[in-house]
Known about the structure:
Residues 1-20 form the signal peptide. The protein is α+β, with helices and mostly antiparallel strands. 42% of the residues lie in helices and 21% in strands. It has 7 helices and 5 strands.
Amino acid sequence: MKFSAKPVLLSAALALAACAAPSAAHSDKEATVSQATRTRSVQSRYGFAETVSRLQQAVKAKGMTVFAVIDHQAAARAAGLEMQPATVIVFGAPKAGTPLMVKDPDFALRLPLKVLVTETGGRVRAVFYDTRDLIADSGISAADVENSLALAGVLIEKTVSQ
């Protein structure tokens, strides 16, 4: 009796294809895709280190908390890699953010706020999410953030341009 591998390979391929096929049991409610969040970029009139420092000071002066400062360039160097200066400041105010997360628990994934300071081509920029896009596809309205999150962008722009 001669053995043929073709039926075995065909069976294995069909089994793998069945595993990879989307299940009819999944509903649209289980997996949704939201639109990409756009960023705003503001050129800083200061050097890189001063821009990072000024933003941290401005955030703290407004009573917000700096939760983390992530130096991507230092992390790259530690991994034996090189990249442009890039630091992310993670900040927020629990008094402002908590009611938003209570209203829409999924909104917690979008908080705290972040601002990237980066330098490319001799130009220092502050990059952050546009508030309108940050609240898009959420249970949060513009009125909910007009006196909180919306003001963060104004603070960033003012801090790096004045």
